[in-house]
Every structure is written in C-alpha cells, then in structure tokens.
Design brief:
The complex is a heterotetramer. Chain B is mostly helical. Chain B is 72% helix and 2% strand. The chains are: A mainly alpha, B mainly alpha, C alpha/beta, D alpha/beta. The interface between B and C is large, with 51 and 42 residues.
C-alpha cells in the first residue's frame, strides 16, 4: 500500500468525509437549479446563519459524547439572553461586555442544575432536560414578567459584533464561534479531561474502573453545554437585536441536535469530532439558506431536520454494525 | 476447613417480605391520589369558581385528548420504550383527515385515512426501534420533528375547517351528563386497565419492561408486542387528533404543539417508572385528573401562565425523582 | 422578583389570593391575549387599564404561553366560569374558538374580537375592534415605500406566515394598489416571502432577498418580527441606503433603526387606543348607552365619534400613523 | 526460583459474603516477590473472588491485606492500581470507540486534567509495548474493530505499561492461540525475573505446570493447599480441587435411553460456530464442554431460537422444524435455562409466582384473563416440589438467593412439561448444598424420559452426570465422548485450541527488554 492510497483511505474512512461530500453534492445540486446559490454572498449568509448553532453545538456535542443529551438548551439560551438583556436595560451603567459574563454564567448554572439532577438521581438526561426545557422557560417568563427587551436597550457595540469585522471582513460573531470550535477541538482532542469525556460515553461502566470520575465529568459537560448555550444567548441579542421571552431560543434544541448528529456525533456516546460537527452545522445552515433561494417554503425546514436526524441515526447504526465487534463488549457497555 | 461451616437459614436465602399494607401505601399511585385530593382542596381555596363539577368536566375535555394518548403511552413506557411523537402524530393525522375531507371525500373516508396514517406512523416508529434497534427516545424525537414538519408541509399555515355539523362539537355531546371525550377517556382507561392488570398480554408487557431479554427467553414475543404498542400509540394519537378536530371544528399543523411534554407528564405523575416494568393505568387515570385540576385551578384563579409553566415543569421533574426514589427503595 | 416568588409560594400553599376579586358589582372585562411576552399587547392592555380606571370597570389580562390555536380555549372557559361580563380576545385562529365563544355569548357575555377579526366567522363574536381600516393598509404601505424610493424600482414583501389572514388581506391590497394606481407604474413587486414570524427564518429570508435581487430598492414587512429582522439585515449588510425597509412595527422595536437612519419611516396604529376604545364600547353596550348595531355611532373621549361598520366592526382610527425621526420619541409602546 | 523472604502481599483471614452466602472463608496467603503463583479451583471455588478482592473490585467482609508488611486497604480498582496491583480481566474491559493507544493510557494518573495529551509519545510507547508482545496491532485503530484475542493483548499490554508489582491474570490464555500463549509465558517469566509477582488463574493444568512456581488450590471458598508446583502432580491437584468424590452427591439412577429427541444438523452461524451436528435422546444427559468463548452458549441460543443459526437444520422427535423465536421452541417442547440468570432468566423486580408462571400463559389464563388462584396453586406446587426457600410468593424474585432463583427458573420450564431441556451453566454461583439438589433434579429429569443438554464449565459435573460429552473448541465440535470413557484429560485435549487463529507477525522470539 503506497502512502497516497493510505492517505486517501484514511480520509475516506472518516465520517467527516461523508458529510463534506454531502455538503459539496448538495451545493452542486442547488446551484444547478439556481446558479446564484454558488456565490460569495451565499457563503456570507450561511456563515452568518451558523454561529449560534455552532457554539451551542459544541456544548451539545460534548453532552452527546458523554452519552447524554441536553434538550433544554433552547430554554437556557432564552433564559440567559433575557437575563443579560434585562441587565442591559435595568443597569445602564454596566459595561456592555459584562453581558457576556452574565449570560455565560447563567447558562452554566442552569446546565449545572441539569447535570446535578441527572447524576444525583441517576435519571435519563433526555427526560430531565425535557422537564427543564419547560421549567426554565416558565421561570424565564416569571423573571422577565413576560416582557421583551426592546432593541433600544441592546448595547450598540454588541449589535456591531454581528456586523463589523476585525479582519478579512468576517464579522466578530463568526470569529467567536470559530474560536470556540478551536478551543473545543484542543480541549476534546488534546487534553486528558477531553479524552475522559469520550471514555465515559464509550463505556460508562468501565470508566470508573479506570479511575475516571464520572460524576464530576458529567456535571462538567452539562455545565459547559449550558454555558455555551448562554453565550449563544447573548450573541442572539447581538444578531437579532432584541430578546423576546416567548420567541428567543424556542425550538433551538432540535436544530442543534440535528446539526450535531448530521456531523457524525453518535447518540450512543464516544464518537464524534469537532470538525464533523462544524461541517454538520454548515450543512444544515446551507440547507436553510438554500430553501428560500430555491423558493421552497420554509415549512419544509422542520420536516428536513426530522428526516436528517433519523437518517443520521441509521447511518450511525450501520457504521457500528459494519465494524467487527465483540458481543461481550456490547453487553457490558 | 469443613463444608459445614457455611451457615444456612431462611433469612439468608430470602430477605424478609414487606408487609402488604406497606407495599400498597408505598406505591407512587397512592402519592398521586393524595396529591389529587390536595390539589382539589387547594384549587377550591384558590378560586371560588373552581368547585363546579360541570366546569371541571368541561375543562377535562381540553386535556382528554392528551390523556387518552397518555394511557397508551403508559403501556409503552412500562414495556421499556418511550414515544415522544404522540402530539406530532395527532397533528399529522388530523391534517390528513382535514385535507382528505377538503378534497371532497366523504368524512368516513377521511376518518379512515387518519386512522391508517396513525397505524403507519406507529409502525414507522416501531420499525426504527425494533428492526434497526435504535433507542426509541431519540428516534421519536426525530419522528416528532419529522411528522410535524410533514404536517406543516402538507397543510401549510392554513386552518382547515367547515366540517359537517354532526362531526363538530363532540365535547358538548353528553352521555349520562358526561362529555363524550371524558367517556372515551374512561372507557379506554378501563379497557387498558383490564388488559394491563388482568390479562396475559398485560403481564407480558410488565415482564418485557422488567427484562426484555428474559422475556424473550421465556418465549414472550417481545418484538411483536412492542410493535403493537407503537402502532397503538399511532392509533390513539389519530383518535385524539380526530377528537380535537371535532372539538375545535378546525385543524392546523400546530395542533397539540408541545403536548408531548404534557403526555409524558401525565404518565410520570401517575407513577410509571421511566425505566420500564412498573406503573399502572389507574395511576395515569388519576394523574390526568390531577393535571386538569392543577391547570384548571390555576387558570380559573387567573394565575399567570408564567407561573403555570413553572409549576408544570417542576411537577414533571419532582414526579420522576419521587417515583425513582420510591422504586429504587422498594427494589432493594 | 421576590414578589413573584412569593406569588409562587402562595400558589403552593393554596392561599386564597383572589378571594376579594369577585364580590363587587362593576362590569368585569377580561382580555385574552394571543400569548404572553408579546410586546405589542403591553400598550393595548394599558389602554384597557386606563379605560377601566376612568369608567370604573374591572379589568384582567390573561394569555396562554404559545400563540397556538387551542391554547386560548381553557382561558376563555375559565373566564366564563368566573362569570365575567365581557370577554375580549385576539384570536389565534379564525375558527377554533367558535364553539367556546358561542357558549360565552349564550351566557350573556359580550364577546369582542380585538386587534384582528375572525374572518369568515364573524357570527361567533358580537363585535370586532380593529385598529384601522384593514382595506386601506395595503395601499398606505405601498405609498410609504413608494415615497421612500421615488416610486421607482424593485420591491419585495416579507410577511409573517403564508396563511396569516390579516397580512394576506394587506398583501392583496398592496398588489391591487400596485396594479391599479398609475403612480406606482415604475415599481415592480419581485417577490413575496414568508418568515413565519420567527427571527431566524425572517432573517434568512431577508438575506436571501438581498442576495437574489441585487436591484432591490424597497422591502415592505407588515409584521413586527419581520420588519425588525429586515432592518437588522440591511444594517448588517450596510445596504440601508440602497434598500429601504419599511412596514408595520412598534416604535420601541424600531427606535434604534430610526435613530441611526437604517429605517426612515414605518407605520402602525395605536394599540393603546384599541384597548381604550374596547373598554368604552364594552361598558357602553353593557349599561345600554351604546347600541351594538351597524351604523350606530357613539362618542369616545380623545377619539371622537366612532361608527359601527358592517359586520359590527369598529375602527379606532381612519388611517395608519407614520413614525419617523421627528415623532418617534413621542411614543412608548 | 527467586523467592525472597518478605512477602510482597500477605492476606490474613480474608472472607467474603454475597447475599448471605459465604463464597470465601478465612483465606491466609503470602505471595513473594518474583514468583508466578497459580490459583486453582473449580468454578465458584473462590479463586476469582479472591483475585477481585486483591484488585479492589470487591471488598472483603472480614480479613486484612498487607503490602510489603504494611497493612493496606484496597477500596477500589484505582487504589489497587496505585498500590501496583493490576487485574487483567477475563473479559477485557475497553473503550470500543477509542484507539488502542488511548485504551492503554486511560486512567493513568500522570499529568493535569487540562494537560496536553502527548499523542506522538503515547503512540510510540504503545508500539513498543506491541513489539514486546510480538503482536502486530495497529495502535491507531479503535478497539471496536479488534478481535477478542487482540483486545486481550491490549489488556495485557496495559498492565505492563503501568508499573505493576503484582499482576493478576484471570484466565488470560482462554482466548489465545498457542503461539500467543507462548509469547505471554515468556513475557510473564521476564516480569518475574524482574522481581514482579504474577498471579495466574487457569483451568489448564499443563499451563500451570509449565509456568508457575507455586500453586494455591481453592475449594468451596476455602484455601485447601499451597505448595510448590514441582511437588504437585496433576492427580494431586485434581484431587485437591474436587475434594470428596463428586459421585457421592449424585444419585443417578440409570435412565432408559430412548429415541432421538433433538437432532441438530450442520448448524452454522458465521463468527460464532460452524457445522455443528449432534443428537440428544430421550432419557439422555448430553454434556457440552468447552472453554469460555468456544461457542457453546451460541449453539444453545441458536437451537432455542434466541439467535437463530444462519444455516443447518434442527429436528425435534424426528421432524425437521423451523425455530425462529423461543416461542417456537417452547411449542416444540424445548426449554432453556440460560447462563446469565440475572439478565436472561429472572424478572428481578416481579414476584416469584409471576416468574414461575411466565412460560405458561395458557395455564394461568384459560380464557385470556389471569386467574390468580390457578397461578398461586402452580407456584406453590413448584415451591414445594423444588424446595424453593422464600418468605412469600409475592416477594420480588431478586430478593431470593441465587440457588432459589435458579430453582424458580427451572420450575418455570417444568410447567411447560418439556421433552428437551437445555441447561447452560445451571449451577454457576450456587452454593454447594443446593448444587447437590440440582444434580438430583437433573438426574430425575432424565429418568423421566426427558433429554437434557447440559452446558457446564465444571468438568467433574459433566463427567459424573452425563451419558455423553460433546466438546467444542473455537466454534467447532471437536469430540463426542461416551460418559464412561470421558476423562478430564480427554475433554481438555479436545477443548484446547490447536490451530492458530490469527497471524501474529511470525517474527522469531527476541528478547528486546523494553523498559517495562
């Protein structure tokens, strides 16, 4: 086997390759129908559509890697955005960048609550976070008195993060998202703690036998997921210019989960990469941008997301099936 | 070093059995019943307008559709699976019903289409869960998005209405002074209660939920029963969708949106164990009334919806935790 | 926040908080809104509150969490049970409330549809309080955008949902005005797209419009979510000078865009006056001073003489109010 | 034999109880530096439990451990590892989605949690370890794709990687080819020569003779003998392991062997077993022997329809039948007591009576509705007949002892009145008194004209109970021996694999002493 075919093999056997191929094929098909799709402008729109999903997706990915799921991120996003927005409105002397800390902190706290309930009572995270999805939304209505934070209270510099660019004409918000992705990559791929997240998801029974403290790491991934959803919350205010308790973040969890599983992160834990997730997020972003350009009703979006989740599950299943595996390992896992 | 050194007594062969009264009082259903009484008292104190049987029955009709699906969901959860797509199946089957009727077919055909779609959607879930061995909880999150998305695609944002007058307003039809949806709920509860508590099928559902592998080894047709339960979910959702269509005299893609949470809430409040193998129809039956009383009590007292959402979210989490604690205590 | 907590505690403890709310004689009016967290209704509710303060009626505002068709029904039933005299509602569906409203009317309750009508189901309510003559909104909006682009060039519409009845009525009006009035002969409507009243979808649709129609000169967005998203997009893209955004929005939502010149002018009516008028009309009908008959007239302080139009529909004002830099600071809603 | 004077590890009065049953009683043992020490005994004799106590998997009910003369607590496997004790599990524990390299280092406490993972260096180390084991495993591949043998190798490499002074190998050779076994032995000797202590648990006496310096023999939870291997003959060891003649516990009345009840022809399931043919007659007890992983359980599962075979046929009472599901098998008069009782046998949280009647829904519900009086009567009869000890029928079966759980499972099948019973390790984890009852029952079943297929890892059990013993090795049937001709040796010879399973590079043994 010469090195070229070996390299090719290495690339093709990775799941990321499949998503990248899908992305290219999709772009070609769409631009064949509507040539305008293949433009720098489209790229800009796609890149603007994905930062929030990408940031929250990094958190969701870590939760999935540890063989959990966090359905409450939409409500956490809304909650953090509202708290930050109320701080902008009610504490005008506060420096505007402090909003980042508030939102991230609030998100982390809510994520920690998720993790605590899941680990303390050994409950399935999907049910717990389905409950907190509704609970957090209820509490956010309560604290905000169900009132929107109007655009006039969102600090100008925050808004401009979605518009102005530090370099190459790429807005700050995209830089932030890519930075988070880069940090996530270093964290997950190059630190001991990151690898422990994979280990817990890959074999939760074996992890404690190898000295991995499952409970703190589980708490950590939920907290990180919450914190990143919180960060996405303040960026929501930046991107859309206001925060509304009954709109902000509603249904966001499905978009993020769809993007992450499309990116090849396994719902069974232990499998998935940052690069895959980034590609998955961009793919779904491209789909949502292509629909209006093709003149297809936005109503198709949810149906496509649902189908995409199911197809990704089936692909994940067949990838697992195809590998030679040991029955004893599976039984123990 | 002799073999006789191993002491033996009945105590070591089997732990002493708990007294019967304790096993009954420690059941989560007992908790649900106590909560129901407390909630009724609380609601009566909260608002003088609450304590009115006709009003409570009328309010129950608004939740009866979810409660009916919740009854079947109870069986699904006892069998160790879960189906979060019930509300989306309600919406899609109801939209298919509306579209078929609007296309000029007789209403009986439209009802048939709706029921068939219920079977098909339940079967689709079952295939993914059983044939492809995917976890039902995530599969049905996918299908809930998919089904509602399809409903949105085929029905748009349109409100489909103008059904014949005999079809409309089933919630204002009374038998023995009870609105028909309440009767349907009670009949379904009774039927499923008898099946679950008194028949071999019911027994096998518990056994599957306790250990699907042991059930398979004991000759129980696990896959067939689970498939049946998923299809049952689809049919119940389709019936619930039709009841909603009759009650509202119109259908839209967003029918019952977010109701999966309330369905799960009803089952959890009724003390069904999220990991399967335990639970009862009587628990779900009581929990449906409990939910209605809490929600109605708060609504008629004009407590803002913000507080209501918070209370319901808390209830779900607390009921899961409480049930989990009760069962893990009695298990060991 | 402490107050809200104590309210919650009160619920849990089962205290009788509402005990004093039912023993009095005055006319009881309740307004069932579309959903909570909708800033538009804050001002409308204020109109009710001030009206009842003056007239001596009792007023309550309730709303479900989501603007879904069925969600208002339990609230209306509860109000019937509470024995109120007047139910005003902004229906989430033109027909899903028919049954329950009929029951309310059968009990002698005056049923008003406020801020939107139940098109095609007018017989299920007693009267409709509409902010303005909906037949004229389309033409007004076309005139506004025309004035901003010198009556020349491509324009597009970003609406709410495809089936939103009010918006569709206005869009029909816009199309008629464009087709029939020679003044608009050089204006060309190139696209009508729908953002589903979701910020994310509206933003994506607006970005697609800009990318698909490089010669676009103006955008009408007759919905509060849509116009805010459109303004945000042209601001981000730096195209505020070439693409004029206008439509229907609230001053609070649009204030920053007016201030920085992104949006020159937009329109709306006074939701406050709707509440004010509705409370006066309700009390008048209830105490017999106003006859709810087509063609009847009555006086309302600050609004002058009001006529009951066909189908028992009542308008608070003749045309739309236009907001621009000169007057926006006079409004707070 | 470089045995030093101060014991590396000394155990005093180690005892362990599980659910009231004492599985280990008062074990005293000293291990020296630089010895390979065999632990021998039947299944359930307590050797594995002892190993698990040393490695922190279990905590002793009583007794103390001392390391180099200092008393120590070993509360968990991590503590054991920190003390320099590593247990190589019988079934490798791994992280299937992660690479071999990572599996080697996961859990080793060197460096901060947020410290950088030295991928290149890790990979180098991993490759060195693989070279030393003389296996060609791609260390960048995920564990998922590896064969069990390779996974075992990784497990062994992991123990070598961590600087353990005491390495416990729990039947490590079971899934290995002779070549791999030889490699392992040479490594074990090298480790010993470096002054490490190795505990070697095996059933294979010839391996013990070839490798070990001393041996300790367990029986029924007691330590019966510790001696130099050189001073023990195979016969001595077997006598010590078995203790009293097993014959005394069994009362096999010579049953009349009748017609063929079950015939299996050329059954194959790729990856599990290949071309299996045998018969079981009425009144006959047929043993199925083999090492762990030989495919015995897979054959039983295939016959019973749990995981049907890909090809081949099954005939019941002379008629070829289709068994796609256990319910088909039950209808044909088959019954199956599975190996993994806790998972595949009992419904742990359900009452005993519901467990007993699970396979006979028709009996308890003649018209579709369950008649609890009938159910109770059936259960009570079983409790009386099989002497199941319990507090109440409505008690969850999980609260019963293992033996009584197993009796309830057997009772479940007796209600179906089966012609053919497949018993997979029916006496595993059952204390000795109840075992005797089981031997009685199995004998009675055959005497009543039922055919019995008995899978067991306890050779004496098979030797004394069976009319015929089939032996499987690596998925193939390697012997069919009449009961009175079978010996431990003849069965073991057929059970131990003889041909290589996978290429291991074939490089000649070289003693590259990589720093361990």
């Amino acid at each position: 086997m010469n090195s070229l075919t070996a390299a090719l093999r290495f690339i093709l056997l990775r799941r990321e390759a499949g998503i990248a191929v899908m992305l290219v094929l999709f772009s070609l098909v769409v631009s064949a129908i509507e040539p305008r799709f293949l433009s720098l402008d489209t790229l800009r729109i796609v890149m603007l559509a994905v930062p929030l999903i990408l940031i929250a997706g990094m958190g969701q990915m870590m939760v999935l890697l540890a063989r959990h799921v966090d359905l409450s991120i939409g409500s956490i996003l809304g909650f953090s955005a509202i708290v930050a927005g109320m701080a902008f409105r009610d504490l005008p002397e506060m420096p505007w960048w402090f909003g980042f800390f508030i939102a991230t902190f609030v998100g982390a706290a809510l994520g920690l609550v998720n993790g605590a309930v899941v680990t303390l009572f050994r409950l399935p995270s999907i049910i717990v976070t389905l409950g907190t999805l509704s609970l957090y939304r209820g509490v956010l209505f309560l604290i905000s008195d169900a009132r929107q934070v109007d655009p006039q209270y969102i600090p100008r510099p925050l808004i401009e993060m979605s518009q102005t660019s530090p370099i190459f004409g790429i807005p700050w918000i995209i830089f932030i998202a890519l930075t988070i992705a880069l940090i996530s990559y270093v964290f997950l791929d190059h630190t001991r703690l990151g690898r422990q997240i994979y280990a817990i998801g890959s074999n939760p029974v074996a992890a404690p036998l190898r000295g991995i403290s499952v409970v703190p790491v589980t708490l950590l991934v939920f907290t990180l997921s919450g914190a990143l959803a919180g960060l996405a919350g303040v960026l929501y205010a930046s991107r859309f210019g206001y925060v509304n308790p009954s709109i902000t973040g509603v249904g966001f969890e499905f978009t993020v989960i769809a993007a992450v599983v499309v990116g090849g992160v396994s719902i069974n834990g232990g499998v998935g990469t940052v690069l895959g997730t980034v590609l998955g997020v961009i793919f779904l972003g491209a789909v949502s941008v292509a629909l209006p350009i093709l003149g297809v009703s936005a109503f198709w979006r949810d149906a496509i997301y649902g189908a995409v989740i199911i197809i990704a599950l089936l692909i994940d299943r067949s990838v697992r099936e195809s590998g030679i595996r040991s029955a004893t390992l599976e039984a123990r896992a | 070093m002799s073999d006789t050194s191993i002491p033996k007594s009945a105590v070591q062969d089997a732990a002493p059995v708990r007294p019967r009264w304790k096993t009954i009082l420690l059941r989560p259903e007992a908790m649900t019943f106590v909560l129901l009484i407390l909630a009724t008292l609380g609601a009566s104190l909260l608002s003088p307008f609450f304590a009115d049987i006709a009003y409570i029955l009328e309010s129950f009709t608004y939740y009866s559709e979810y409660a009916i699906v919740g009854l079947v969901l109870t069986l699904v959860i006892i069998s160790g699976e879960i189906d979060l797509s019930g509300a989306a199946m309600m919406a899609l089957s109801a939209c298919l019903f509306g579209i078929t009727y609007q296309a000029g077919y007789p209403i009986s055909v439209a009802i048939l289409v709706s029921l068939i779609s219920g079977v098909a959607m339940g079967w689709f879930n079952a295939i993914l869960v059983i044939r492809f061995k995917l976890p039902s909880i995530i599969v049905t999150i996918g299908t809930l998005t998919l089904f509602r998305g399809i409903a949105q695609v085929i029905a748009g944002d349109r409100s489909i209405s103008k059904f014949p007058s005999w079809f409309v307003g089933i919630d204002y039809q009374y038998v023995l002074n009870l609105p028909i949806p309440v009767i349907v709920f009670c009949v379904v509860a009774l039927a499923l209660g008898v099946i679950l508590g008194g028949t071999v099928l019911g027994r096998q559902i518990y056994q599957i939920g306790t250990s699907a592998i042991a059930a398979q080894h004991a000759g129980i047709r696990v896959n067939r029963i689970k498939t049946g339960l998923f299809i049952g979910m689809g049919v119940a959702s389709s019936v619930a969708g039709l009841l909603t269509a009759s009650r509202l005299a119109s259908v839209r893609y967003d029918l019952a949106s977010g109701a999966e949470l309330q369905m799960v809430l009803i089952v959890m409040l009724g003390g069904t164990y999220i990991f399967g193998g335990r639970g009862s129809i009587i628990g779900t039956f009581l929990a449906a009334w409990l939910l209605v009383i809490i929600a109605t009590g708060m609504t008629v007292a004009n407590i803002p919806i913000n507080a209501q959402l918070t209370v319901l979210g808390l209830l779900l989490i607390i009921s899961i935790i409480a049930t989990n604690i009760i069962y893990s205590r009695t298990q060991r | 926040m402490f107050k809200k907590l104590s309210v919650l505690l009160g619920v849990a403890a089962g205290l009788t908080m509402m005990a004093s709310a039912y023993a009095a004689d005055p006319i009881k009016i309740v307004f069932v809104g579309k959903n909570t967290g909708n800033p538009y209704f804050d001002s409308l509710v204020q109109g009710f509150v001030d009206g009842c303060d003056k007239l001596g009626c009792e007023f309550e505002f309730v709303a479900p969490a989501t603007a879904e068709a069925t969600s208002q029904i339990p609230f209306i039933t509860a109000q019937i049970q509470r024995g109120v005299d007047v139910i005003a509602t902004s229906p989430n569906s033109p027909d899903a409330l028919n049954q329950v409203l009929d029951r309310a009317r059968a009990k002698g309750i005056l049923v008003l549809s406020v801020n939107g009508d139940m098109t095609g189901n007018e017989e299920h309510r007693d009267a409709a309080i509409l902010p303005t003559d909906f037949e004229k909104v389309g033409a007004d909006q076309v005139e506004l955008v025309g004035s901003l682009i010198d009556y020349e060039g491509e324009i597009a519409i970003l609406s709410a949902t495809t089936e939103a009845p009010d918006q569709n009525k206005w869009i029909v009006g816009m199309n008629e005005a464009l087709a029939n009035d020679p003044k608009y002969a050089k204006m060309k409507l190139v696209a009508t797209v729908y953002g589903d009243d979701q910020p994310e979808k509206s933003t994506t649709e607006m970005e697609a419009l800009l990318s698909t129609y490089p010669n676009l000169r103006g955008v009408i967005s007759p919905t509060t979510v849509g116009i805010a998203a459109s303004a945000q997009v042209v601001q981000s893209a730096g195209k505020a000078d070439t693409v004029k955004v206008t439509g229907l929005g609230t001053p609070n939502q649009m204030r920053p865009f007016i201030k920085d010149g992104t949006v020159e002018a937009f329109q709306l009516w006074s939701p406050y006056n709707e509440g004010w008028l509705a409370s006066h009309f309700a009390v008048g009908v209830k105490d017999g001073t106003i006859k709810n008959e087509v063609g009847a007239t009555f006086e309302v302080p600050n609004l002058g003489t009001i006529t009951i139009n066909p189908l028992n529909s009542i308008n608070t004002q003749a045309g739309l109010t236009t907001f621009d830099a000169s007057n926006i600071d006079d409004f707070n809603f | 034999m470089p045995v030093s004077d101060t014991p590396v590890l000394s155990a005093r009065g180690i005892s362990k109880q599980f659910g009231g049953v004492e599985v280990l009683s008062d074990v005293d043992l000293d291990l020296s530096a630089g010895e390979i020490h065999a632990l021998l005994g039947e299944n359930g004799a307590g050797k594995s439990t002892f190993a698990k106590i040393l490695s922190g998997v279990h905590r002793p009910t009583r007794g103390t451990l001392a390391l180099n003369g200092n008393p120590v607590e070993v509360p968990n496997p991590i503590a054991a590892q920190n003390l320099g004790i590593t247990l190589i599990h019988q079934e490798p524990i791994s992280f299937p989605d992660m690479s071999v390299t990572e599996n080697l280092v996961l859990g080793r406490h060197d460096g901060a949690l947020l410290g950088r993972v030295p991928w290149a260096q890790m990979e180098r180390n991993a490759n060195e370890l693989m070279d030393m084991l003389r296996v060609s495993i791609d260390v960048t591949k995920p564990m998922r794709g590896l064969s069990i043998a390779d996974q075992q190798m990784v497990e062994i490499a992991r123990a070598l990687a961590s600087d353990s002074r005491l390495i416990i190998m729990d039947e490590p050779t079971a899934p290995l080819t002779p070549k791999e076994v030889e490699t392992l032995f040479s490594i074990a000797r090298r480790l010993r020569d470096q002054g490490r202590t190795i505990i070697f648990i095996s059933h294979r006496l010839e391996e013990v003779q070839a490798l070990c310096d001393r041996a300790t023999i367990f029986r029924d939870g007691h330590l019966v003998e510790t001696a130099n291997v050189a001073d023990l003959s195979d016969e001595d060891i077997i006598r010590l392991m078995i203790g009293r003649p097993l014959k005394e516990m069994m009362h096999r009345s010579g049953a009349k062997i009748g017609d063929v009840a079950l015939e299996v022809r050329e059954l194959s399931l790729p990856g599990k077993f290949h071309d299996i043919s045998f018969t079981v007659r009425h009144g006959e007890i047929v043993g199925l022997a083999g090492l762990v992983g030989a495919g015995r359980t897979d054959v039983a599962r295939a016959v019973f329809g749990v995981a049907p075979a890909a090809s081949g046929s099954i005939a019941v009472k002379g008629k070829t039948v289709e068994i796609a599901d256990p319910s088909d098998a039950i209808e044909l008069g088959l019954a199956f007591v599975p190996e993994d009782r806790a998972v595949a046998g009992i419904f742990g949280t359900l009452p005993v009576d519901q467990n007993i009647t699970a396979a006979v829904p028709g009996k308890i519900a003649p018209h579709g509705f369950i008649r609890s009086a009938i159910e109770r009567a059936l259960a009570e009869k079983s409790v009386k007949d099989l002497r199941i000890r319990l507090a109440a029928l409505r008690q969850p079966i999980g609260e019963l002892s293992g033996g009584n759980q197993q009796k309830s499972i057997l009772a479940r099948w007796l209600h179906t009145d089966p012609d053919i019973l497949i018993l997979d390790e029916p006496t595993r984890g059952i204390d000795i008194g109840v075992k005797a009852e089981f031997y009685d029952m199995i004998g009675t079943l055959a005497a009543n004209g039922r055919g019995v297929l008995l899978i067991s890892s306890e050779l004496p059990e098979l030797l004394y109970l069976c009319d015929r013993i089939l032996v499987m090795s690596e998925g193939e049937l390697t012997a069919d021996i009449a009961g009175d001709e079978a010996t431990q040796e003849s069965v073991m010879r057929a059970a131990v694999p003889t041909k290589g399973k996978h290429g291991t590079g074939g490089s000649p043994p070289e003693h590259n002493e990589v720093a361990l």
